[in-house]
Amino acid sequence: TIHPYLLYAVVLLLACTTSGGSILGTGAFTKRAVSANLLRSEDCNVVADFAFQMLTWLSLLWSMLHDAIGPRGCAIAGLTLTSCGHIILGMASTHNVHSPYVYAVGLGLVGGGGNGAYVSSFQFTTLRAFQKRRGVLTSVLATAFNVAAYPFLLLNAPQLALGSFFFGYAVFVAGAALVA
User: Fold this and answer.
1) What is the model's pLDDT at position 2?
2) In 3D, which of 76, 36, 101 has the Cα closest to residue 174?
3) What pLDDT, on the 0 to 100 scale, is given for residue 1?
4) Which residues neighbour 9 within 8 Å (Cβ) at sequence distance 6 or greater?
5) For the chain, does the N or the C end have fewer beta carbons within 10 angstroms?
6) Sign of dihedral through CA atoms 8, 61, 92, 99?
7) pLDDT at position 57
């Protein structure tokens, strides 16, 4: 059997890298997309606003589906959507797509899908092994939402191609979905 704290560490790592908070890194992405002439600066608000709306509505969907398909089902479905969002972003940036709506949908799937796994991650804090530390573990897990934006800061490195970042992230998230 897996030690409960090892399991919690894996869940925390995945929450820190795949939760909906990933789209808090939209600024680094849109800055790169504008400098690569993929988006105009006036498109950045469209991308961010639309992506956050998708995050919100998909989060509501996960909340309603949680009891119907269970935490594992929500996590797998959410990570699958997140991986698809990364693929859309990778394809769009590689093929010089200029529509802000394509990037908005991609980021919306990254964020909204990621919250499928994030919402499900809180189930692990109810394990009997965590009875005395449940409050601390839940609070730490809650911060993972914001931490998930940090990988997007890699987009500030001009040497990293947008397509490579998003395709690599899609593989990572797909792997996480297989483990879930």
Assistant:
1) 84
2) 76
3) 78
4) none
5) N
6) negative
7) 97
Nearest to 107, CA basis, from 62, 15, 45, 175: 45
Reported residue count of the chain is: 180
Is 84 within 8 Å of 144 (Cβ atoms)? no
Count of Cβ atoms closer than 10 Å to residue 55 Cβ = 24
Over its C-alpha atoms, the chain yields an Rg (Å, rounded) of 16
Residue of 59, 74, 79, 64 whose CA lies nearest to 120: 74
DSSP 97: -
162-179 vs 44-94: helix crossing angle, rounded to 10: 90
Q: Provide the terminal-to-terminal Cα distance of the chain, rounded to the nearest Å.
A: 16
What average pLDDT is seen over the chain? 95
pLDDT along the chain (180 residues), means of 10: 89 95 93 96 96 96 94 96 98 97 98 95 89 92 95 94 97 94
- The whole-angstrom separation of Cα 79 and Cα 68 is 17
* Contact in structure between 148 and 18 (CB atoms under 8 Å): yes
Check residue 157 and give left, alpha or beta (phi > 0: left; psi -120 to 50: alpha). Answer: beta
Distance from C-alpha of 36 to C-alpha of 4, rounded to nearest angstrom: 45
Query: Six-digit token pair at 50?
Result: 């639309």
Q: What is the pTM of this model?
A: 0.95
